[in-house]
Amino acid sequence: MSPSKSETTTVKGMLCMVAGTLLLTSQDGITKWLTTDFHAGEILFYRGIWMFPVLAILIHRNGGMKTLRLKQPSGVILRGMAALTASVFVTVSLMRLPLAETMALVFIAPLLLTASSPFLLREEVGWQRWMAVLGGFAGVLLIIQPGPDGFNSWVIFALLAALGSASRDIITRRLGTHDSAATVMFYTSIISLIAGAVTLPFGTHWPDPGQWGLFILGGIMVTFAHLLIVMSLQMAAAAVVSPLKYLSLVWSALIGFMVWGDIPGPMKMTGAALVVLAGLFIFYRETRAQPAKAVT
């Protein structure tokens, strides 16, 4: 018995999400590699240049220059600033933290989003999701290991990146779908490029051919990654594909081990597992509550 058209589309959506998370995490690995020789502003600028050829193709396919007219300009700019904050702090944290640890801490963004929803989005959050938030924060404590022996102050930058990511998602929820994903990505990239350019007079150097190759690859990868994630959500139900985002933690652990020989300790692995489980539970409760318009 051959699979139905809807089943085939769902499988394609899942594959797009798997590929999108792999590209995005691989790009983070490239960023970590480049932090040895370049500061965050340089990386944002040199990588950002190479996002625009791909974005130009997307914008052309979506209707051309007319799609760049914003219906909610202030909201899109605020979202771009929040995304910039996340990008800057995750780049800074990658200078001194293992890739897998950084990704695990950034993935507390859904927990921050849930915790702030009653105050910023006027959404009710029931006791079960509050318990999941507390469990996720307990996982964060296991990862960062506060105290004189295990604490690494660079985790603060990863936590700030998570805060920026959560802020970006809150603004995205408020924006709705008035502006297309390609349009929002275009202006977000413009903001990052300008911010990176501002830092160049304070210390920069010209990349060599190999480094240019990494910047080009990173710019193309991050753009295609976001495109694949959007396509995934268009082809399959969010409840099916969104949990696959947590594959980023698997990819980051594999890349970190193969490139830098990083092996997370048992406490950090347990903490990461708690963060993932809390995020998945919150997503599960949200998808169950949406049809009934209630939150438990």
From TrEMBL:
Keyword Cell membrane: no
Major location (coarse): membrane
Annotated TM spans: 43-64, 76-97, 103-121, 130-148, 154-172, 184-206, 212-231, 243-261, 267-284
Alphabetized UniProt keyword annotations: Membrane, Transmembrane, Transmembrane helix
GO cellular component: membrane
Database matches in Pfam families: EamA
Domain EamA: 12-144, 153-283
Stated family: Belongs to the drug/metabolite transporter (DMT) superfamily. 10 TMS drug/metabolite exporter (DME) (TC 2.A.7.3) family.
PANTHER family from the UniProt entry: ACYL-MALONYL CONDENSING ENZYME-RELATED, SOLUTE CARRIER FAMILY 35 MEMBER G1
Protein name, UniProt field: EamA family transporter
Organism: Sneathiella chungangensis
Lineage: Bacteria, Pseudomonadati, Pseudomonadota, Alphaproteobacteria, Sneathiellales
